[in-house]
Amino acid sequence: MELQKRIRIYELGSLPPFLLVFAGEIVPVNHRWNQHGLGGDNFRGLCRDLHPGPVSLLHWSGKGKPWARLDANRPCPLDALWAPYDLLQTPFALDS
């Protein structure tokens, strides 16, 4: 982590250090607990839907972040779930 602070050695956010810390002792998390991928398709920028059934955690993993899409007036439908928590209160109007 000290090296990463001085010279960027990876571009994948927090995943590489977590994989090193846990040394492969990881298991997949059921999608009911972690609805990942709401950041959309990293290549085409497509919006994604929720998995069927209950979800405990909404995770905007990927390049598409709700605050950026709302600020650009190009939101995905599920970005409206994040909008009430936007401390900057974007001018985007959410239609119900």
UniProtKB/TrEMBL annotation:
Pathway: Glycan metabolism; pectin biosynthesis
Top-rank lineage group of the source organism: Eukaryota
EC number: 2.4.1.-
This protein's GO CC annotations: Golgi apparatus; membrane
Key words, A-Z: Glycosyltransferase, Signal-anchor, Transferase, Transmembrane
Protein name stated in the entry: Hexosyltransferase
InterPro entries documented for this protein: Glyco_trans_8 (IPR002495), Glycosyltrans_8_dom-fam (IPR050748), Nucleotide-diphossugar_trans (IPR029044)
Family of this protein: Belongs to the glycosyltransferase 8 family.
GO molecular function: glycosyltransferase activity
Main location: membrane
Keyword Magnesium in record: no
Pfam family, one: Glyco_transf_8
Entry's localization field: Membrane
Topology term for the membrane: Single-pass type II membrane protein
